[in-house]
Recover the amino acids of this structure.
């Protein structure tokens, strides 16, 4: 998903390792992909079109793990 451009930002409130409130800004990326069934089952099952959504926190938080 690194080659997909950022489609939007979303701000959320989370708690750090000590339970104190903290703000996080998430970068939202999404992309449609097509998944084919195994070669031996392509006549029985159709291809699927799926939307992959990826959210990753901007920056590096000091008192907790980065959200991904």
């Amino acid at each position: 998903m690194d080659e997909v451009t950022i489609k939007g930002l979303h701000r959320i409130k989370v708690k750090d390792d000590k339970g104190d409130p903290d703000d996080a800004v998430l970068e939202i990326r999404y992309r449609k992909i097509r998944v084919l069934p195994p070669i031996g089952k392509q006549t029985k099952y159709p291809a699927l079109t799926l939307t992959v959504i990826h959210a990753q926190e901007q920056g590096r938080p000091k008192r907790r793990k980065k959200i991904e």
